[in-house]
Description:
Blueprint: H1 2-24, H2 28-40, E1 44-59, E2 68-80, E3 86-101, E4 118-135, E5 142-162, H3 167-172, E6 176-196, E7 199-209, E8 219-220, E9 223-228
Antiparallel strand pairs: 1-2, 1-9, 2-3, 3-4, 4-5, 5-6, 6-7, 7-8, 7-9
Amino acid sequence: MQLRLAVAVSSIALAAPLASVSAQTTTPSAQTATTSAQSTTPATARWEFSLGADPTAFDLNTPEPGINARMVANLTRSWQSGNSRWARHISLMVGGDAPHDASQGIPSFFGLPECACSMHLSRRYAGLTAGASYDLFRVSRFTPYLSGGTGLYYSEFGRSTDGVLTQGDLAFWGRDYSHNNFSLGANAGLGLKVRIGTHEVFMEQMLHDFGFGRQWMGAIAPLNIGIRF
């Protein structure tokens, strides 16, 4: 988790010096011309839609029933002027883990006997975030960029237990358990967009930290592929 948080913080921190250097190396006359052009060029609003999977939580050959797969979908509204490398965006993310089973025979805790049972696990989450992105440079149709933001996240964890349970098992594990939580979090990532006609196709590796580095809040790192139209 500390490594993931460091990646997120460094991605956001990297964009600021690049923007500062870009502004400092511009001559006064160029700054005046740029400011004038930007003031007369309204920001263009566009929609983005993407699907993603978390490479750190993807395994189709699990020994237990089910698969280990974490999928997300993103719908984003973005605004960017034609003369600016900066863009603003508001995004809605929804996703979940594919339901799967835990191994038979849950190890004992706190001196309780081992539970000879199976557990069905599920997780869902959503995020409503706002942030900005910065185009690093442009080469023909290709533009790499940095993205970061913050917002409100929701996560839900569910567990149901099957099998023969003793009174001790029931007291500790229970038959069914669910927990949900709202939290403030942050996100950051690196992407590449390619212009095709009037649209853009993009691929980005994102990190969503649900609790600013607090490990129990959790994090996901989806690799998204989408289109901007």
